[in-house]
Amino acid sequence: MHIGGPLGGLVPVSKISELNITFESFQENGFLLGHASVVCIPQSFPLVNYLHHLFEFTAHESCGKCFPCRLGSTRGKELFDKAIHTDYKIDKTLLNDLLETMEIGSLCALGGGLPLPIKNALMYFEEELKEFIR
What we know:
The chain is mainly alpha-helical. The protein has seven helices and three strands; from the N terminus they run ββαβαααααα. It has a three-stranded antiparallel beta sheet. Helix 2 packs antiparallel against helix 3 (67-85) and helix 4 (92-105) packs antiparallel against helix 6 (115-124). The protein is globular, with a radius of gyration of 14 Å.
């Protein structure tokens, strides 16, 4: 489930019972409550496509003022697009560097918030993503 909007935490169902609907509970568990919306992602929907969508959304919504958000979200979208449509595997170190740059260097929450759900996916859905990320 993606809780808190596009910049919220990507929470595996197995972690739901450990959370309370409070900002503190989500933060303590490595997620973000955000505005507490809930988007359920069906098991049949490839998570890699959802991650591509998050980068695509951010690239489209970026105001373009800062490089980390404008270029980082576009580059992330390109990486996932290439991994989905070819036999290319995303280098995990490169992806983590991209996420860190966006998180630290973005001027607003759009670019700075996108890394959290991607990091959550890498942590909790590694098995599903292993064919796309090395």
